[in-house]
Records
---
Amino acid sequence: MLERLSGKKKNMTNPENYDVVVLGSGEAGKYLAWTLASKGKRVVVIERRFIGGSCPNIACLPSKNVIHSAKVVSYFRRAAEFGIDAGDWKVAMPGVRERKRTMVDGLVAMHLDKFKASGAELLLGEGRFVSPKTVEVTLPDGGTRVVRGDIVVVNTGTRARIDPIPGLSMARPLTHIEALDLDQVPEHLLILGGGFVGLELAQAFRRLGSHVTIVERNGRLAHREDRDVSVALQELFRDEGIKIVTDTSVDRVAGLSGGSVTLHATRDEAEITIEGSHLLVASGRVPNTDGIGLEHAGVETDARGFVKVDERLQTTAAEVWAVGDCAGSPQFTHIGFDDFRVVRDQLAGGHRVTTGRPVPSCLFTDPELARIGLSETEAQNRGIAYRLAKLPMAAVLRTRTLSETRGFMKALIEAEGDRILGFTMFGAEAGEMMAIVQLAMSAGLPYTVLRDSILTHPTMAEGLGSLFAGVPAEPTANVGTH
Ligand SMILES: Cc1cc2nc3c(=O)[nH]c(=O)nc-3n(C[C@H](O)[C@H](O)[C@H](O)COP(=O)(O)OP(=O)(O)OC[C@H]3O[C@@H](n4cnc5c(N)ncnc54)[C@H](O)[C@@H]3O)c2cc1C
């Protein structure tokens, strides 16, 4: 014991020096590490569990993998519609999980190759600041190393929030991590939260064979989107047999997820109970900034625990940067990637900042919901006049060939000009379609360029020509979308 203590003390007074120390191997941190190391900098990345961060291991990519399995199941269910006699078939969750695990293993191997090729050191262990720019790392075997960087980057991400509802943590609810690694289809999955994670997993598990109930405290799903978007999503979920209980706050949880769970809740001032076999928490994220010694490093956090940063992603401590979810950036991997570009350019003497950058988003339900720029609600709240073009997806002939006619797209155009202010699409391939409009927006192109382009028939993109052909001459009246 004495030996270990004295060893530790020696480490703290003589830390190993690096040009760059990255705490957490998430999106921005790993790209910074690879980029700077390949330019000859001495870089170490500390990671406690998920090599390459959440996205490839437990979040974006595994969820989209399982969602795609669920899409294949939906085709089996619709086989007759496509003229196929699928015979007897059933979902085998161990196979669904195996496909996902194989993908994740491949991604981790890809990350390890990139560390090797760039020369950035990957140090597996739990990191904690012990003094400015100095991190003590507890290694898997219990030993410690202390590293100090001329530059330090905090990239510790977020985790699923477990609200302090009596009985909730005792019920051992699933988070997305366990839900994406199940080898059985839950008989009845209760989902707390109708945000992105809850909605994507609700539809996937319903398609894989679960009964699914979403419990949402707000009045509607995806309540930050325009009302027509929420309504369309709710219709989709209703048609697929997903039960949605809105305006409901859970007061108490009884039972154990994986066996039997009961939610005791309040709705319209009445007490209700909701029963299921499994419980998934998807009601928000908390930053992984507690217990990592930020106070020893002069790095301040805000009231919700996110690291305080300026528009350059600089923290309150000199030469310490914070990136991704933990820095309060919008919680998307593509934003994490842009955080990498901001810090990379700042370190190279450039002036890239986070201010005013576009934040595209895509909800990977089937069909997808994608948005870039202003929604109608936002435009109205900010008093911005706009012209609205809206088109049902059934008017895009490609959707008829696919039997995927559900949804709509809409675009907001300046009232006094032709620039595109926002685009929302709920329909097949919405994420890909949005990128076309985003490009036009970032190039400052008038909507007429898309309207007048010769777009291949029959593609989804062809629909953009029809959408923009419908832009009215007059501004749209406030129709109360929220
Ligand atoms: C189910 C789900 C699906 C999602 N789908 C999408 C999607 O389709 N598209 C999209 O853009 N976004 C999606 N997101 C959001 C996206 O995953 C996150 O915004 C993104 O992964 C955040 O990246 P990050 O680099 O900030 O943090 P992370 O990727 O979480 O990286 C932080 C890393 O730090 C490590 N760490 C934390 N503390 C320590 C410590 N003390 N010592 C050592 N290591 C530590 C963690 O283990 C982790 O590996 C999804 C999220 C979830 C939960």
---
Amino acid sequence: MRTRPLKVALLGCGVVGSEVARIMTTHADDLAARIGAPVELAGVAVRRPDKVREGIDPSLVTTDATALVKRGDIDVVVEVIGGIEPARTLITTAFAHGASVVSANKALLAQDGAALHAAAEEHGKDLYYEAAVAGAIPLIRPLRESLAGDKVNRVLGIVNGTTNFILDKMDSTGAGYQEALDEATALGYAEADPTADVEGFDAAAKAAILAGIAFHTRVRLDDVYREGMTEVTAADFASAKEMGCTIKLLAICERAADGESVTARVHPAMIPLTHPLASVRGAYNAVFVESDASGQLMFYGPGAGGSPTASAVLGDLVAVCRNRLSGTTGPGESAYAALPVSPMGEVVTRYHISLDVADKPGVLAQVATVFAEHGVSIDTVRQQGKDGEASLVVVTHRASDAALNGTVEALRKLDTVRGVASIMRVEGE
Ligand SMILES: NC(=O)c1ccc[n+]([C@@H]2O[C@H](COP(=O)([O-])OP(=O)(O)OC[C@H]3O[C@@H](n4cnc5c(N)ncnc54)[C@H](OP(=O)(O)O)[C@@H]3O)[C@@H](O)[C@H]2O)c1
């Protein structure tokens, strides 16, 4: 074993960074044996230097992250600050000064992954980010390496624990969205400002990263269609139950049937209770991958939290250190397929539509005509009447999002349709 240690600069020592530092210390001997050289924490950049940090030598703490990555003797920079800047500049500076980088930063990777990969390649360094998607769950490396010989057609995932906790609560207790969110906040599953989670921004960043790797195509955050889950109601769950379904916020990356394009989207959707993703409870994450040769694979586990996320960071750290010792780099960006990313209108799926209609003869025929005129074929219709008003629940066969939108627009114009109570896509069948 080499005795000269590999030097690691830790940028950020919060929820994830503090656990990375702890595991680096407590598992130092095992890590050294697995890598073939000891790893040494050479510096820790933070915002608040005076904060007490258990297990961290205060002499290593600095507020000057730029000086730390520019030292020139750093082998690996672990970026767990988060956000776009200064993380982006620190990562590119690290490459320019000879370090490889491990990051957990989904927001940055989804926005600027291509440029960061290019910078890593230019300097002959590694950029690893297993922790950026679904915390502890091995997903990036299986997609990038284990499935490199297969053709992935679909990635369907629950990649945000906060929203899964909320939806699971709504499902199991009949609670409304706000009540379930309040409980998630009280238990520490939701942030004080839950926007990034409940509006699907966090999941959309992960979808962009997953789609890019799965389809060997650059997929940027802007390419991902996004709908949050704040409008999901207890009534939607009741409808889902009647259909033998539950509701999940899903990140869905798909190759079109002709293989010529891909789509990436995040939205709430009904999935059958028989689908493996339906049984993913609480704040857990799971990703279902469908590919030509392997068939269906499911990856499941804790998608966040300091220690689980640090597990993924440490796995990357070991891999990058091994590469460093053998004078090589791991796989970089693979975007050779360069498939076009289609807009949401071209996505084809099934829909569950709930309409408030006048309870009088001929309404059903009128509604059915609108669906037919837009080429959307109806699978089932259920009608419940009450005091001259009725609710009509229509489940369609597969149709494009554009056709469905045209249908809904036309339905809204019918005198007999009082309102469109909800529209939910049905996935996983
Ligand atoms: N938390 C999770 O469960 C989880 C899961 C997967 C991925 N991630 C990703 O991991 C990253 C870190 O998340 P986290 O939850 O650990 O965040 P966090 O608890 O807020 O920690 C951020 C750390 O960065 C430091 N920092 C902030 N601005 C800085 C600056 N300008 N220069 C130097 N240090 C700075 C902070 O310093 P102070 O300590 O002085 O405030 C803090 O130590 C993010 O990209 C996040 O998306 C997190």
